[in-house]
Design goal:
315 residues, alpha+beta, paralog of FGE (formylglycine-generating enzyme)
C-alpha cells in the first residue's frame, strides 16, 4: 500500500514549538469557544485488530483507554479563522518561510506547472510549488477568497500549535481525537458505521475514481469541501473522515503500552514525527485506506501540503 498521504520536508529535526519559531505569537485568553462539543470522557476501545492498515502504522492492538472530559471543535479550523489569527499576530507559517509547499498535481494550473522543478521520490503526484501557502493553496494565482468556510491547509504542526495557543486551546491527543471521531460507536470502521456509503450516498470527501489520474468527484469535491459538508457523527463532529488530515499533539510510535486501562495517553516524550488522523480528499482504498477512524499516519513538525489541517480542543 503506497502512501498518498502527506509528503514531508527533508529536515526531520525541526520539531521546535511554534512559539519558538514565531516569538511574535501572543497567547490570548480563551477565544472561539463556540462550535465546540463537550465530551464526558471515560473508557473506550482505541485502535483496531483488523488488517486494512499498513503493518507499520501501528493501528493495533485494540486497547482500553480512559480519558478525562474535554471539549473539541466540531469543525476543522477554517480559512476565515486562520485569517483572523494572522491579522492579529502577523504569524508567518512554515510554508511561507520555506517559500514552497506540496500541491497535488491535478490542482496545479498550467502556468504553475511550467515552474515546477521537483516531486518527492515515489510520489510524483505531489508537486513542489513555489509560493503555495494557506493563502494561495495552489500557488500563484490561487486564492481562498471563495473558500473561507473550507479548512485551512498547508498547515505544519508548528503552525497548528501557534493558532491553538493564540486561541487558548491546544491540539488533541491522538486518543482524544479518535474517541471524538468515533462518535460513541464501538469499534466501527467509520464515524457512521462499517459501510463506506449509505444508500449510495457518500458520507465523506475522499478520492473517487482511479488514483492518482482520475477523480470522478462522485462525492461532490475534487479538493477540500466546506468544514460543515456531510452529516456529523454521533457527537456532532464534521468531516473526521476525509477532507484534510488533522494534526495531533503526540509524537508518533507504533508500539503501545500494555496495560489493562491506559489513562489519558499523550504519546512518547520525544520523537521525529507527529501523529495525524482522519485521512483527506486524496485518500483512496487502493493507495491510502486511512480514512478509517483507527487509521493513522505521521509527518515531521515542519511539513505541509494542500491536504493538512487541524482542529482544536480544550480541557
Amino acid at each position: 500500500m503506497k502512501s498518498c498521504c502527506t509528503p514531508r520536508r527533508k529536515n526531520e529535526n525541526t520539531a521546535n514549538t511554534a512559539m519558538e519559531n514565531n516569538p511574535q505569537t501572543k497567547v490570548s485568553a480563551l477565544k472561539h469557544i463556540d462550535h465546540m462539543i463537550e465530551l464526558p470522557g471515560g473508557e473506550f476501545l482505541m485502535g483496531t485488530d483488523g488488517n486494512e492498515g499498513h503493518p507499520t502504522d501501528g493501528e493495533g492492538p485494540v486497547r482500553n483507554v480512559y480519558l478525562k472530559p474535554f471539549a473539541i471543535d466540531c469543525y476543522t479550523v477554517t480559512n476565515a479563522q486562520y485569517l483572523e489569527f494572522v491579522n492579529e499576530t502577523n504569524y508567518i507559517t512554515d510554508a511561507e518561510k520555506y517559500g514552497w509547499s506540496y500541491v497535488f498535481h491535478l490542482l496545479v494550473s498550467d502556468d504553475v506547472k511550467k515552474q515546477v522543478v521537483s516531486t518527492p521520490r515515489g510520489t510524483p503526484w505531489w508537486y513542489v510549488v513555489e509560493d503555495a501557502t494557506w493563502k494561495h493553496p495552489e500557488g500563484k494565482g490561487s486564492s481562498i477568497e471563495h473558500r473561507m468556510d473550507h479548512p485551512v491547509v498547508h498547515m505544519s504542526w508548528n503552525d497548528a500549535v501557534a493558532y491553538c495557543k493564540w486561541s487558548g486551546k491546544r491540539l488533541p491527543t491522538e486518543a482524544e481525537w479518535e474517541y471524538a471521531a468515533r462518535g460513541g460507536l464501538v469499534q466501527k470502521k467509520y464515524p457512521w458505521g462499517n459501510k463506506l456509503t449509505y444508500k449510495n450516498k457518500h458520507l465523506c470527501n475522499i478520492w473517487q475514481g482511479k488514483f492518482p489520474i482520475e477523480n470522478t468527484k462522485k462525492d461532490g469535491y475534487v479538493s477540500t469541501a466546506p468544514v460543515n459538508a456531510f452529516p456529523p457523527n454521533g457527537y456532532g463532529l464534521y468531516n473526521v473522515s476525509g477532507n484534510v488530515w488533522e494534526w495531533c499533539s503526540d509524537w508518533f510510535t507504533n508500539v503501545h503500552p500494555k496495560q489493562d486501562v491506559i489513562k489519558n495517553p499523550t504519546g512518547p516524550e520525544k520523537g521525529n514525527e507527529k501523529v495525524m488522523k482522519g485521512g483527506s480528499y486524496l485518500c483512496h482504498q487502493s493507495y491510502c485506506n486511512r480514512y478509517r477512524v483507527a487509521a493513522r499516519t505521521k509527518n515531521t513538525a515542519d511539513s505541509s501540503s494542500g491536504n493538512i489541517g487541524f482542529r482544536c480542543v480544550t480541557d
